[in-house]
């Protein structure tokens, strides 16, 4: 299993993944915490969801809280499901690597998506995050607890995961003017996810 196999896998498994994906919103404490720090542009919070999948439950939850959500996913089948589940939201088929939408957002999320990238692609993503964040905009993403590679599964197909060390993530964010608000490795209140919340300083 290699990082380049991720998008074809999710293309094949989009509908099954959407049906199986937990909808309990165990992510809610982190989403609410993010919203508490997120500025509003023009009276609304504009959120970029990278690796948005079907939009359920995260983009749906944010939309219900009057955020304007733009979903980006590299799998066409996922984008189609996102549009079906959130018909009023914007959906874009694109690879997050090297993305440049030419606009900025009050928050950027890469939940359970960023960690499918190879280490070098992860390092390059922090410039992409910064490019799409407004001043004081927030960044929420998940990683592994420490540096390494792992193989997981999506509907009986294997999928690649990678992580850098927490110290390297901190350095990469600092280089882009992004300050860490919180990092909880293997958060027991979030089904063991390792979660970062950060904010662009200027």
TrEMBL record:
GO molecular function, one term: methyltransferase activity
All copies of domain Methyltransferase, residue ranges: 47-137
Pfam families according to UniProt: Methyltransf_25 (PF13649)
Top-level taxonomic group: Bacteria
GO biological process: one example: methylation
UniProt entry tagged with the keyword Nucleus: no
InterPro entries referenced in this protein's UniProt entry, alphabetically: Methyltransf_25, SAM-dependent_MTases_sf
Keywords, alphabetical: Methyltransferase, Transferase
Tagged with keyword Transferase: yes
Protein name: SAM-dependent methyltransferase
